[in-house]
Amino acid sequence: MGPLASYLPYLLNRAGARIATAFGEEMRPLGATLQIWRVLAALREQDGQRMGDLSSTTSIDVSTLTRLVDNMEKKGLVARQRDPEDARAVVLNVTPAGRRLTVRILPIAERYEKVALQGFDPAEAEQLKAALRRLYANMDGLKKPPPNKPHGRRG
Amino acid sequence: MGPLASYLPYLLNRAGARIATAFGEEMRPLGATLQIWRVLAALREQDGQRMGDLSSTTSIDVSTLTRLVDNMEKKGLVARQRDPEDARAVVLNVTPAGRRLTVRILPIAERYEKVALQGFDPAEAEQLKAALRRLYANMDGLKKPPPNKPHGRRG
DNA sequence: AGATGATAATTGCATTTGCAAATATAGCAC
DNA sequence: GTGCTATATTTGCAAATGCAATTATCATCT
Asked: Looking at residue B136, which CATH number applies to its domain?
């Protein structure tokens, strides 16, 4: 492997960590955290998501998410509800307080997007985003294939 | 803010998380972790770094790093040494075992780079990396300015 | 040399994290 | 409808994390 500075996962982590840390600091005075924001942002995109969906869209492990949502519920930001279509599932809804907090965070989020992309022209910015989506999709290939059960061995 | 899928920090985190999780899983059978790899990779780039430098290059908080290095020392992967130039500082050196582990991980790391960049032509890949470096640099602007001490008020 | 303020690393401590196991429900086969 | 397997969420638990405080050394000023 060549120098670190040209290793993609390194560059990715480094950039992500820097944004995350800075953003997290800005959340504190609002009584929020980066993870709380992620959930709120996901629910703003689409309210009433299940835990599992939310876990995928936020990249937060579902067991971590359970406890994060516990907190958010205590803070009155979201409300859990059993999914009427499937009693195993839980559906999350944002409360008015949650919406108010979201509205307060939005301008910060927009500022971050701007700062991060300082000096990028619109085409470059779009290119970067497209590349990140592609990269994400590429990693699908590494997802564990379902464990090959030697049960009804007619493979 | 528009849809999540066009929010840069979101895309960044999502891509990074996916690589990190998958890579972490591959580390387990080797008795390593993603963070251990980060330290080893940083030291491979430049052995004998101080804790603080290592913290910057790996994006691992220095207090976390202290304990991570404790573990790595127990595993015999690295050795701490007081910096002869500055007795406050500690310098890390990779041991032979650390080098051996590094060598075992390298091909995995290279595979990840390849998979992540599947379908990117070299120019596109370089563009992406350049963009990530730029983004990282852009975030410098948000680092807290040193608290303006009203002490020797001759500013 | 002594005092003062900065820098490097570690430690205390409460929180967060994530794997594995447990629980609950669904859906299909028979 | 009973049994079996798959899916959705939660819980147990040990480990990782990060902020704040602490300790040790350095650098500068006088």
From this structure: 1.10.10.10
